[in-house]
Description:
5-stranded antiparallel sheet, alpha+beta, 9 helices, Rossmann fold, Dna Ligase, domain 1, globular, 3 domains, D-amino Acid Aminotransferase, Chain A, domain 1, single chain
Amino acid sequence: MRIAILSQGPQLYSTRRLVEAAVARGHEVKVINPVKCYMNINMTKPSIHMAGKDLGHFDAVIPRIGASVTFYGSAVLRQLEMMGVYSVNSSIGIARSRDKLRSMQLLSRKGIGLPITGFANKPSDIPDLIDMVGGAPLVVKLLEGTQGIGVVLAETRKAAESVLEAFMGLKANIMVQEYIAEAQGADIRCFVLGDKVIAAMKRQAKPGEFRSNLHRGGSATLVKLSPQERSVALRAARTMGLNVAGVDLLRSNHGPVVMEVNSSPGLEGIEAATDKDVADAIICFIEKNANKQSKKSAEMGVC
């Protein structure tokens, strides 16, 4: 197969591992920076170009679109989907997961456990907003933040009011969530592939930090999931419409709660912590499902 990887960083661990796994299985791989692409949108032969050349046809695409280029990267992915290319994650699924507020609303509608979450845009709403999530301490999150950036723990009511007023004064889009103290600075990353959780790790924040992101100095260890945690992770990924997802859970007193569903989960931490070849599993999944799509398209007479 000819496989495209949409990524701005060919040198990044996850991109390199996917290239290695695909080449090892006999596939041709091209890493494409989506922001360097431009598109010919027409009803007969849509195409994608870069540096004056038509990139041609691909059998499958692995989107590793950075959060800062979600809009344009998703447009490139939609163009590939229009061209009949199998995408391991759909553009719609990526858009759902990147909108933190929308993803929380979708998960809530499906009855999936979440921290109590509040959203408002007026300073006059702050007192009730704080009460709504159970008071301080609470967590304030920028909707556009990634890798723990833009996430603030407000330990007192006064601190919460000050942080919320500051963000609102900057016209930033924020949401407020209850603080799950019993998690003790740890969360669980469940790596979902299709209808299975193929790997899971526990991420522990460094001393004095409540954010467990590995980019912020957190550590990762192998963890055994409960049947309930496995079920919640699968339901969360399915709700977003994602085949490949990193579902972040907290262990709360009332069961597992979903913090985030990531459509481009990193491979370095999960492969190191679990000693599993996640990259190879993704390529195997693509082989199986891209071939299914090609067969179905041929039966329907779709070229």
